[in-house]
Amino acid sequence: MNQAESDNAAYHWGMVIDLDRCTGCGACVVACQAENNVPTVGETLCSQGREMQWIRIERYWEGQYPEVRARFIPLLCQHCDNAPCEPVCPVYASYHTSEGLNGQVYNRCVGTRYCANNCPFSARVFNFFEPEWPEPLNNQLSPDLTVRSKGVMEKCTFCIQRIRRGKEDAKLEGRPVRDEDIVPACAQTCAPGAIVFGNMADPESRAFRLARSKRRFRLLEDLGTEPSVIYLKGGGREDD
Amino acid sequence: MAAGGVLSSCTRDAGQLIPLLIPPDDGSVPGLAQFYASTCLQCPAGCGIHVRVFEGRAKKIEGNPDHPVNRGRLCARGQAALQELYHPDRIQQPFGRREREGPAEPETWASATDRIASRFRELSTRAAGNVLLYTPPLQGIRLELFNKLAVAVRAEHIQDDALNTLVHLTAAREVVGTSASTDYGLAEAQFVLSLGADILETFQSPVRFAEAYGRMRRDRPTVRGLFIYAGPRMSQTAACADEWLPLKPGTEGVLAAGIARYLIENRLYDPASVVAWGLDLESQFKVLNRFDVARVAEMTDLPETRVLRVSRDFGRFRPAVAMAGDGPAAHTNGLDTVQLSHLLNILSGAMGQEARVDRRVHPGSPVPSSVTEMQTAIRRMEQGEILAALFMDVNPLLTLPASLGFRKALAEVPFIISLNTLPNEMTERADIVLPSPSTLERFQDVYPVVRPTGFQLGLAQPVVSPLYEMPSPEDVLIEIVRKVTGNPRESSHLSRLKDRVAATVTDPRTGLENEKWFRALQQGGLWEEQDEGTLASPIMKSPVPAPRLPRFSGTEQQFPFILHLYVSPMLLDGRSAALPWLQEAPDPMTTVQWNSWVEVNPGTAAQLGLVHGDWVEVESPVASIALPVVVFPAIRPDVVAIPKGQGGERGDRYSRGRGANPMVLVSTETDPENDLPAWGATRVRLQKVPSRGSLITSGDPSGSYRGELIGL
Ligand code: SF4
Ligand code: SF4
Hints:
The structure holds two protein chains of two kinds. By secondary structure, chain A is an alpha+beta fold. Chain A has a single domain, classed as Alpha-Beta Plaits. Chain A is built from seven helices and ten strands. In chain A, β2 and β3 form a beta hairpin. A seven-stranded mixed β-sheet of chain B has the order 5-4-16-15-14-6-7, sandwiched between helices. A six-stranded mixed β-sheet of chain B has the order 22-24-23-28-21-25. Chain B has 25 helices and 28 strands. Chain B is globular and about 70 Å long. In chain B, β6, α6 and β7 form a beta-alpha-beta unit. The site of one iron/sulfur cluster has 14 residues of chain A, from α2.
């Protein structure tokens, strides 16, 4: 068994998002853009639904004034174990890694957009045009990952560059990756600590333990896509 | 030379390749990321940051996990500060204009500061008060230097309170005898009542509060803290509450008075706290006697059951904390509401941890100018008595109510200097424009608005070599002072900063005086967790007065709606509007992008024949603006709401000409007895007008699509 395979057995990446903590503030959205070279597209393209954010906050209204509630739910690629976006890609740009990630090979992508059409969570975004960073804004671009070009599909990677870095650091120090060593940009910035990322193959990990909460649910569970993102239901007065 | 020769053919890449061959002198290591500690300056909260720098370029801002204000977390605005550093429209050098609004011509620093100093000197020898200095509320070295300049040129100094902190400072002084920086033990609370305090988005120290909120909700195995929000509009913060109490605007104080009365009547207060603070319960009860549950329900327009329940819960859960925010503070009775929130904390026993006086090297709290001072300065400008004015980091043309007459008054000032990082309405009008380094390129001593125990000072420091060569605003001021006074020995910004750091209290555990500077650089400030600080002497001015009724400009018949203005969660009062990440980030409640709007209750909209995206003229007694409508399910039918932040006409490419500035609608109501502004006290009416453009939302306007499907 080579190194890569032994790594593979050890990790299954997943995320828990506690909706009782999430305040809908959108810090994760901006943190993700900064981390992952996600472009802004401007007002006109936004009006055509072509914004590129990899994580977005959906807001739902329930009830009517005055008995009305708003709920927020951060929505990102669910890294489904049974991902509907994968089998439809004619060039295998959308694929599954053995660590449970739903990967996207940018330089393989030919832009058919089948994957986006097949994603029930609308988690995928497409570069309809060449992204723009008027100078000197481009100085901010991270060298850890590519800038995707026109015609390429992209989406949340669970900050794959941070996963890599975490694993490399661990390897250099000759130890396994410690729980919560790897923190995606969204989770790192989230003030109330709503997002917990971790190794679902490790029953001791915080993410694994949280994922067993009574409040757990997954999005569109009945579609059977087996998302790796687990949500915990938000509150409401418990004495109600 | 050899390297230069080899690379000369690939000219475009040379800039990136050379550093790999010749070690750069900025300490960066090719291929390795470095982190620098600093302080976020996007709002007065002063969160600690770590900036990830790669080959001399700032790539990402993270929260500093060791910083006691924000404990490793950051808000969207803090994340976006990178775009200020690398903004394509940054002012890169000084400019001068020969005529008002004429073309800006490049000028050298020496000539610009010469011109400013000689004009200041000439004016100040003629009479005092010819020069106006206009800044946000300042602390630390900036305050020291502005005071120095003000003395040297006999100037008046206005500290524009765009974020409305004066009322909070006044209330703390009135009730607990000190305008101390107040913190709230949110994480330990079992019950939190927000009277319009948008603690999770814009109020005072939002990252600190949101971090504590997360712990309040879910960090304790057996307790989930309850959170109740009272206010006429459901803000993002209110949306997180277990219960939203949509009371009439300006009656938040009435609710607080009712709860206080209930607590006293039913002996649900903390006796030790009452004794410690010297609160005379009997006289306090007398003052609040008429605010029984029925009366409060009627005045606030809330069901009696709700008033009763929140009163009972505030008495039942311990600790219970009350906070009053910007919405209620902007009414003519705003001071009453904030004072009564302190009374509630004294009654519940939460005030013990809350008030803390900081008697350290820095002045305890900023001193924003009062309404009268603002009005006087504007009147003097208009009457031609101000002959030169220097503006730093402000945009009063956007943030002041237009009815104060600032625009007209400004036109009468013959010599305007504006100091800013990005262009705005002020730099576009100034006779001399001085650029300021971005917040990631300069040193600054920072005093967070909510200061944790033992916190001494935050330090902002340059994390990259400056993109454009320019002195810090502090050094510009020092240069002007030097030239005005002819005293070349004014010490530099950096040496002043080192002095300040040296003057902080030394922690006996961590040691040596001369290491302090390096520790401050390493941590992004100095704090000692063990230090208990000094508690406010528990003496209160009792009894706390009963709330007055709010007054509004405009009659209900003519102007049926109360205008609720709020600070935009993404753009604040407009200071973050230049950053494209924040323009494109959907507003949390409406999901609108790149625009502004007016929120209307669905019932009201139906009556007026309005649907989402229709345009209306919003008309107040003083002005009108046109805006697209967002039909907003969680706002009172008699209230309409508009976010601040958009409507800049002259700034950078991302904010220019977007949306409308609601501050033009505001009548300048005040609380004359306390000399406080009341810029939330205006009524308006709506009139449907033909569409003037589209309104872009990232979510479905109704918001309910697939809501059931995903099992929420
Ligand atoms: S940063 Fe955290 S609280 Fe804010 S929207 Fe994202 S998940 Fe929610
Ligand atoms: S709350 Fe203020 S200081 Fe803190 S990160 Fe946000 S903008 Fe910066």
